[in-house]
């Protein structure tokens, strides 16, 4: 005698929303016209200058410049990552992440560690240390302070955004 089999399938709302939202990739070109967007692009360009100016020298012989390289490369990669997140509006697809808090923590830590790295960089630049690398290290020190001020600006904007979210 033939048996009857019933198969029931269910779909969770999470997978339905994920498949519906991931089918289109948003692009927010207006982000680059905002002050935080411009600061982020400036951080990327000048941060690249900081670590390439140091990487072109024998920085590995001096531990202070190794620290500066770590901070510059680490925050350069993360800033590129966050720029992609903001440009593709990925933050709208992952509402479980408190993006204003993440942005505040990221920009605040970048400001603090870049400030320390810029001071270390500037205090380590001497003609006696290695004269043929002097100009590169001096330039990297200048740009490190400029990038630090950009991260300070973005920290301010992140704080304003975070504060407005917590008051709601």
From TrEMBL:
One of its GO terms (molecular function) is structural constituent of myelin sheath. Keywords: Membrane, Transmembrane, Transmembrane helix. Residues 31-163 form the MARVEL domain. This is CKLF8 protein. GO terms for cellular component: membrane. PROSITE patterns: MARVEL. The keyword Transferase does not apply. The keyword Methyltransferase does not apply. PANTHER family: CKLF-LIKE MARVEL TRANSMEMBRANE DOMAIN-CONTAINING PROTEIN 8 (PTHR22776:SF10), MARVEL-CONTAINING POTENTIAL LIPID RAFT-ASSOCIATED PROTEIN (PTHR22776). It is a multi-pass membrane protein. Coiled coil: none annotated. GO terms for biological process: myelination. It is found in: Membrane. It holds the Pfam family MARVEL. It comes from Caloenas nicobarica. The lineage of its organism: Eukaryota, Metazoa, Chordata, Craniata, Vertebrata. It comes from the Eukaryota. The chain crosses the membrane at residues 35-54, 60-85, 97-117, 137-159.
